[in-house]
Amino acid sequence: MDSNRIRRFTYIINTVILFLVIGLAGFFYLCKAPILLWFSVPTLLVYIIGYALIAKDRLDIYVRLVYFWITIYFCLCTISLGYKIGMHLYCLSMIPIIFYTEYMADKLGKTKINAFVASGIIGICYLFSTGFSAFVGPIYTVDNTIAGVFWIFNSVIVLGFLVFYSRLMLSLIGDYENQLKQTALIDRLTGLYNRHYMVGRLESAAKETGPHFVAMIDIDDFKKINDRYGHNAGDYVLVNVARILKDICRDSKVSRWGGEEFLILTSGSVSADASLIEKLRAAIEKEDFAFGEDHIKVTITAGLADYSGSDSIDKWVNVADENLYKGKKSGKNKVVC
User: Fold this and answer.
1) Is 244 left (phi over 0), alpha (psi -120 to 50) or beta?
2) Predicted confidence (pLDDT) per residue in 55-80, tens digit
3) Do both 181 and 297 map to the same domain?
4) In a domain, 171, yes or no
5) 305-to-181, 198, 263, 308, 309 alpha-carbon distances in Å
6) Which residue in 1, 111, 239, 264 has its CB near the most CB atoms, within 10 A?
7) What angle separates helix 3-30 from helix 89-108, to the nearest 10 degrees?
8) What would the mean pLDDT of 125-138 be, rounded to a whole number?
9) What is the reported pLDDT for 15?
10) By C-alpha distance, which of 262, 103, 106, 271 is closest to 194?
C-alpha cells in the first residue's frame, strides 16, 4: 500500500470518526450529560486538525493524537454513562489498529509506535473506566432501553472495525507474499523470470503431453561489450535484449538463465517453430543499441533442443547448451538445432 493510498484511506477514517463524534454529541444532549457534550467540542477540533495533519503527511503525529484523544474520550464516556452503553468497547477495537499502524509505519519508513506499550496503556484505561463504572456507578443515569440499544449499536460498530481491519491485514499479508514470490522468481535487472522459476516450468512441461522445446541463447562477445563500453552499457544491452525477447516470444516462457544467457521454453517442436528463434536473432541483429553516443552491435547465438520424453531436465537443457556451443564455434550469430 503506497503513501497516497494510505493518505486517502486515513481521510476516510477521519471523516467517519468525525461524523460519529457529531452523532454522539446528539446522544449526549438527549442523555443530559453536559460534561460529555462540552467535551465533544475539543474532540471535533482534534479531527478537524487531523485533516491538516493528513494533508501535510504528518500521519505519525495524527496517529498519536487520535490514539491519545480516543482513549480519553471513550474512558470519559464510560465513566460518565456507565459500561452498559458499550463505549468502552472502542478502546479494545483500537488495539489491532495500533499493530496495523506500527506495521505500515515500518513499511513506509515512518516513526513507529510501540504497539505493546500503547496497547498496555489503553488496557489500563479500559480497566479503570469500566471498573469505576461498575463499582462506583456512572455519573449520569441512562434509561435501560436506550442503554441497551446503544450497546447493540456500539457493539456492531466495533465488530465491524475488527472484521475490517482483520480483512485488511490479511490483504496486506497476501500482497507481501506476492511481492516475496515476485522477488524470488523475477530477475531484478531484466524483469524476466529467473532460473529458479524456469526450472519449475521445465519440470511441469516434462509432465505435460505434447511437444516442447527450449532455446538457450547467449549474447555474442558480451565480455567485450563490457570491456569496451562499461558495465552500465552491458546492463543496458541485457535489459533491451530482454525487452526484445519478451516482445517476440510473448507466448513463451522467457528467463534469464545466468549472466548473458537466456532460456526460452515454448510449446511445439524445433522443426515446426525454429523460425521464432530465427526471427528473434534477426531482430536483435537489426536493433540499434544506442547507449549515449555509442551504437553497440549486438548479436546472439541460440541452441535449440526438443524434449524427448525420457530425458532428464538437465540433459534436455544440456543438449540445447551443446547446440549453442556448436553455434559459437562455427561463427556465432546463428540458430543451431
Assistant:
1) alpha
2) 888 877 888 888 889 899 999 999 99
3) no
4) yes
5) 29, 15, 11, 9, 12
6) 264
7) 160
8) 91
9) 92
10) 262
201 touches 254 (CB < 8 A): no
Angle subtended at Cα 222 by Cα 303 and Cα 194, rounded to the nearest 5 degrees: 60
Same domain, 129 and 14: yes
**Model pLDDT, residue 2:** 59
**Pair (68, 200) in one structural domain:** no
**3-state SS class at 153:** helix
The CATH number that applies at residue 329 is 3.30.70.270
Count up the domains in the chain and report the number. 2
Q: Say which of 260, 261, 285, 287 is annotated catalytic.
A: 260
Which residues is 296 bridged to in the sheet?
289
Q: pLDDT tens digit string along 12-39?
A: 888 988 998 898 898 888 888 999 999 9
- Which among 133, 155, 185 is the end of a domain? 185
Residue 162: how many other CB atoms lie within 10 Å = 16
CA distance 36 to 44: 12
Could you give the count of Cα atoms lying within 13 Å of 148 in the half-sphere of its Cβ? 3
Is residue 139 included in any domain, yes or no? Answer: yes
In a domain, 241, yes or no: yes
Q: Range of 84's domain?
A: 3-185
Q: What proportion of the chain, given as a percentage, has pLDDT over 90?
A: 48
Phi, psi of 88 (to 5 degrees): -65, -20
304 close to 337: Cβ distance less than 8 angstroms: yes
At 169 the pLDDT is 76
Please indicate whether residue 260 is annotated as part of the active site: yes
Considering the domain architecture, whether residues 9 and 149 belong to the same structural domain is answered as yes
- Residue 43, CA distances (Å) to 26, 105, 162 in order: 14, 25, 23
Q: Is the pTM of this model over 0.85?
A: no
Final residue before a domain boundary, out of 132, 153, 185: 185
d(CA 148, CA 109): 44
